[in-house]
Design a protein that fits this description.
With 376 residues, this protein is α/β, with parallel strands linked by helices. The protein has one domain: TIM Barrel. The chain contains 14 helices and nine strands. The protein has an eight-stranded parallel barrel, surrounded by five helices. α11 links the parallel β5 and β6. α2 runs parallel beside α14 and α12 runs parallel beside α13. It starts with 21 loop residues before the first helix and ends in a 9-residue tail after the last helix.
């Protein structure tokens, strides 16, 4: 890592150099984050909802300016798209994909196989089916969704959140998953092989959370991920990329650049590329003054992104949302502020104005070594 020195221990919040104030940046250039990403050969994007595109023109304008990649926040999750067996509603995802195409953006698909956000009918059906029936209940959605968007969705989160060391398994796998219980770990193999057959051109991701911080929790998850990859690669499972969700919690867990860089190098050793697929910064527990909190958030984000983008296998950064107006952090019990104020963990505030976090992301892209960029 030649362009910077690693901090010796956990990052001290606010220890990094301050970023350029957002208002000054806006006065200099109207370029969005996608333009900064593009110069390094990478993409910047965000998770969005079709309702936001229909009902909020300010948000829609911001997405068009800032992003060159989008992903559905929930409108390709099976609980939304297949409320009854074989009865599909892709209307929300269709709108998002159409928006991406109209604006020359790349699109991701999230998520084909997940333990959560499933239709109510699915788990009872799994319990009644034989082995072949259980496989079909999983692969039918892969076939349907990937066929519908072949050539329009360039990359898919095929299996999402397969790890959970807290479930007590020695291998760190998520035991409390309907797919693990129905098919064993082979469900991952089956899903990726089916996805490869469904759209051979798509980039296939294995994604998970809790891989970022310098904490016992994240260390267990990193270890479980690497051991899982050992097994999957030994079985020739066609995984192309790892999605590191990137939900930072700087006021709860420390961050160490050297620890994270070492993990990314280990992932790259498997011949994989990777992306940060759900980036945001939980600000609960930070200073009461929002200006001070914004600067601390920007500092830890810059440290994280510097390491991520220094690795040539890192292809894109996607935030889980673009504006604080719509952040899930403001509603989730563990992260929402008791007084009802909006979380400030995304690049734009609730009024669509750029914050120091925006500047940190732009600066990290600007400092990143360039890689070759190609479209699917």
């Amino acid at each position: 890592m030649e362009r910077r020195e690693f901090l010796a221990g956990a990052l001290a919040l606010g220890a990094c150099s301050p970023v350029v104030p957002s208002h000054a940046q806006e006065s200099v250039s109207s370029e969005g984050l996608a333009a900064h990403a593009r110069r390094s050969g990478r993409y910047f994007g965000a998770a969005i909802k079709s309702r936001q595109l229909r009902e909020d023109p300010d948000f829609t304008t911001a997405v068009a300016r800032e992003c060159d990649m989008v992903v559905q926040e929930y409108e390709l999750k099976r609980g939304t798209t297949e409320p009854k067996p074989g009865k599909y509603d892709f209307s929300g995802a269709d709108q998002i994909i159409a928006f991406a195409q109209d604006h020359g953006m790349r699109a991701r698909g999230h998520a084909l196989v997940w333990y959560a956000a499933q239709p109510k009918w699915l788990e009872p059906a799994l319990k009644l089916a034989n082995r072949g029936g259980r496989e079909k209940l999983m692969t039918s959605y892969i076939d349907t969704a990937m066929d519908r968007y072949a050539g329009r969705i360039a990359e898919w989160d095929v299996v999402n959140e397969a790890l959970e060391p807290n479930d007590g398994r020695a291998d760190g796998m998520r035991q409390n998953s309907m797919w693990m219980q129905a098919l064993g770990e082979d469900y991952i193999d089956i899903a990726f092989h089916r996805a490869r057959n469904a759209d051979p051109r798509a980039t296939l991701f294995l994604t998970d959370f809790g891989l970022e911080h310098d904490s016992p929790r994240c260390e267990r998850r990193r270890t479980a991920m690497l051991k899982l990859l050992d097994r999957l690669k030994a079985r020739d499972v066609p995984i192309d990329a790892i999605g590191i969700q990137g939900h930072l919690k700087p006021f709860r867990e420390g961050f160490n650049q050297a620890v994270f860089a070492r993990f990314l190098d280990q992932l790259r050793g498997y011949g994989l590329t990777f992306s940060v697929t759900e980036f945001d910064v939980a600000d609960r527990g930070g200073p009461p003054n929002p200006d001070k909190r914004d600067q601390q958030i920007a500092s830890v984000a810059k440290a994280f992104l510097d390491v991520a983008l220094d690795n040539p296998a890192m292809r894109s950064i996607l935030c889980w949302g673009l504006s604080d107006r719509y952040s899930w952090l403001s509603n989730f019990p563990d992260y929402k502020w008791p007084d009802g104020q909006l979380s400030r963990g995304l690049p734009l505030d609730g009024d669509m104005r750029r914050k120091p976090l925006w500047d940190a992301i732009a600066s990290a892209f600007d400092a990143a070594p360039a890689i070759g960029r190609r479209r699917a």
